[in-house]
Amino acid sequence: MPAGRPRNFDVDKALDCALQLFWRHGYEGTSLSMLTEAMGINVPSLYAAFGNKETLFRKALEWYLESPASYMANALKEPTARRVAEKVMSGSIELATHPNNPGGCLLVQGAMAASPEGAPIRHTLSQVRAAGEAAMRQRFERAKREGDLPASADAARLARFVMTMNCGFAVQAAGGASRSQLKEVAKIAMQCWPS
Amino acid sequence: MPAGRPRNFDVDKALDCALQLFWRHGYEGTSLSMLTEAMGINVPSLYAAFGNKETLFRKALEWYLESPASYMANALKEPTARRVAEKVMSGSIELATHPNNPGGCLLVQGAMAASPEGAPIRHTLSQVRAAGEAAMRQRFERAKREGDLPASADAARLARFVMTMNCGFAVQAAGGASRSQLKEVAKIAMQCWPS
DNA sequence: GGAATAATATAGTAATTGATAAATAATTTT
DNA sequence: AAAATTATTTATCAATTACTATATTATTCC
Questions:
Q1: A102: which DSSP letter?
Q2: pTM over cut 0.70
Q3: Can you say whether the dihedral through the CA atoms of B69, B70, B75, B76 is positive or negative?
Q4: Which residue in chain B has the smallest CA separation from A153?
Q5: Contacts of residue A20 in chain B, CB cutoff 8 Å?
Q6: What is the b/e burial string over B99-133, where b = at least 16 CB atoms within 10 angstroms of the residue's CB?
Q7: What is the pLDDT of residues A93-128, one digit of tens each?
Q8: CA/C1' separation B2–D1 (Å)
C-alpha cells in the first residue's frame, strides 16, 4: 500500500459510472457535476485520479471498447464472413438495446452534435469506427482468400455496409427501437449477402 | 408595412443561418453567441423574432423538413416500392454529403448526445424520424395492394430497414464518408429488395 | 511518536450559458 | 408635428461550465 491517505472509492467502479453517463449523454452533454454525483466523489478527487474531463472520457472509451464493445473483436473470429457479419450486427444490436445499458452506442452517441470545442473527441470516435470498419474489411479479404466469399465480392464495400447498419442500429436504439425490431432489420440486411 | 421601426434583417435568411449551425453542431452544441454572430443580429432581436432558442430550433426544423429534407416526400411519389426505396436512400445520401451542407442529417445530428435539458428536442426529432418511417410503411402497404411488392413482404420491416440505412448514412457522412462510398452501400442494400 | 505523503473537503476562479431590462432609434398613424 | 408602435443597442442577470488553491484528514515511513 502506498504512503498517504488511501482512496475511499473504487477507481474502476467510478470509471464505469462515468462511462454510463458519457454513453447516455455524450461527451459535452455530461457535466462535471453529473459525473461527480454519479461517481460519488468530489471534483478534486476526479482530477487527481483521471486528469481532466477529456482524459476521463478517453479512459471510459478504452474501457468501453475492451468490455461492452468487445463483441466486435469476438465476431471477427467467426469461421465465415457471413457469420462474421451476422455476429457483428447481432452484437451491436444487443449492446445498443440491452436493458441495463443506455440506448445506442458510445461511438455514435458521443460523436454527433457537438460544439467546436468537442471536435477532438468527435474525431477520435470516428477514427475508432473507421478502425472497426478496416478490421472487418481485412477479415472479409481473408474470407475471399479462404473461399467463403466469392472472388467477385468487394470486401471494403461489404465492411462499409455492415458498419453503416451498425450506426443505424445505434441511432434507432437511442430513439427507442426494440431489440426484436432491429433483429428483423438485420435479417433483411443479411439477405443481400453474397454466397 | 406594419407600424414601428422596420427590421433590418431578413427573417428567412437568418433562419437559414440558424439551421446551418444546428445542423452542424446539434441543438445543444449551438450557443446563442454562435447564432447571433452567424445571423448578424443581436440577442434581443433574436428573441423578438423567434421567441427563444428552442422555438428557433423548431422553426429551423420545420424549414429543414420542407426544403432540404423534402426528398422524402418526393421519393414517396415514385411509382414502385423499389424505386421509392432507391430514391429515399439516394436522396438521404445526397443531402448528407452535399458539399454546401453540413455533413449528416439534422434529425440525427441534433438528436444524439444531449444533456437532460435537451430531452424535449431529442424526443421531437425521434418522432419526426418515426413519422418518416410510418409514411414509408404506408407507401409499401399500398405497393403490396398494387402488386409491385409481393404479398409476403412485410411493409413495416422494410420501412424500418430503409430508415435504419438512412440513419447509418447520416452518421457515416458526418464522420467523413464520401457520396460515392455511401452510394455503393445503398446499392448493396437494394440487392435484398423483394421482387 | 513525528515527518512525509497523498487523498478529501471547502471554497472560489474566470468564462460562458440562455435570457432580459432599460434606453435609444426608426417607422406609421393620426 | 405629435403620439403610438416596434426594432435595435447596451448593459446586465443568475446559473452553470470546466477547473484549482487552500486547508484538512488519514495513512505509511523512519
A1: P
A2: yes
A3: positive
A4: B188
A5: none
A6: eebbbbbbbbbbbbbbeeebeebbebbbebbbebb
A7: 999 999 999 999 999 987 776 888 888 888 888 998
A8: 21
